[in-house]
Amino acid sequence: MQRGSDKHSARMDDAMEAEVSGLMRSGHDNRADWNSPEPSGEDQPDVDLVPDGTLAGGVPEGMTEQDVEARSELATYLGRLWPATREELVRVATDNEAPEAVIAQLHSLPLGQQFANLQEVWSTLSGGHVESQRF
Prior knowledge:
elongated; single chain
């Protein structure tokens, strides 16, 4: 018989499985622990951090939501290789299977220039649209 783990006994595995089975089936916590949030009452509105809208996070001053999204996408394919030149950035993005749009952006960077960080790359690509102060 194959068990779920070899760290605990079969009895402990079964107990741990039973403990989370309600959560796995229902999609919400079904235990009455002291730290479990209570659902809203029948005559009360649902709990929401932003009742009149959606919570999308902050957008730094000087940037749009599209700028933040594009910079984030760029960062996911570049990793932590700094300082780097255009050729190194294109190679890393290609190795990380970046979409053609991201690779085309990187090809538009000037040849031979050394970039100290992602912010310098984004500043060059966006024409200077960067957050004014990070901290």
